[in-house]
Amino acid sequence: MTTASASSTPAPPVAVPVPVHQRVAELAAAHIGSWQEGYLQDRSSAVAALARLRRGAGREAGEMPDLWNLIDTDPLHTPAAGARSLSEQELVRAENALHAALTLWAFHQQSRGTPMHRRHTRERPGGLGAAVRRLMPADGIDEPVRKRLVRAGTAPDLVALAQRLRDIVALLRRDDIPLDYALLAGQLYVWQWPDGPAAVRRRWGRSFHEQRRPRPASDENTTPDTDENSISDTDKDAS
Length: 239
Hints:
By secondary structure, the protein is mostly helical. The chain is about 50% helix and about 0% strand. The protein has helices spanning about 20-40, 45-55, 75, 90-110, 130-135, 145-155, 160-175, 180-190, 195-210.
């Protein structure tokens, strides 16, 4: 009787590290998903959470002690099995991005009966550029609105960026145009690294122009497009 050699035993799968910007996006989606569902069902705890969150829109993360026990960042400090621990710099930037995205969503969702956070797909682009383009007429460009996006793209730091995004979100809220806030959270993390602003501006610009393209019929049954959230060439996770 023969026995299988040790070399024939399949090797265990190797865990692929999840980029930090994706971990931030996933955590933002988990938070908002729970709060948004509760808010739309008029649960008192979710309504209260949203009221607390929206007061922090456009402000620094550490400036609002009331939010410290509301925004749970434990998953960033205690990674899943196989994931590496984040450096102090990565943690600070991840927490800043999470704070900015969650508070902007709360401002957007206020008094709205439909979800203002909607995940990006190929058929329904959810990036910031696409959302801004939807504010404009189909046959032209609203120059003042376009300039708001350009101004956000040239913000000198994250606080200024969050303040300028708040102005854009006010317009989206007025017209009931949703945004993918998980995607935005990941982009706000990338923004804080060297070369990050340029990479994020390119994503916003591409999203803005792609919103105008007609979608081919073959796209109707495709799976969600994750390329919009892929910024691995500029994500400084290993820094």
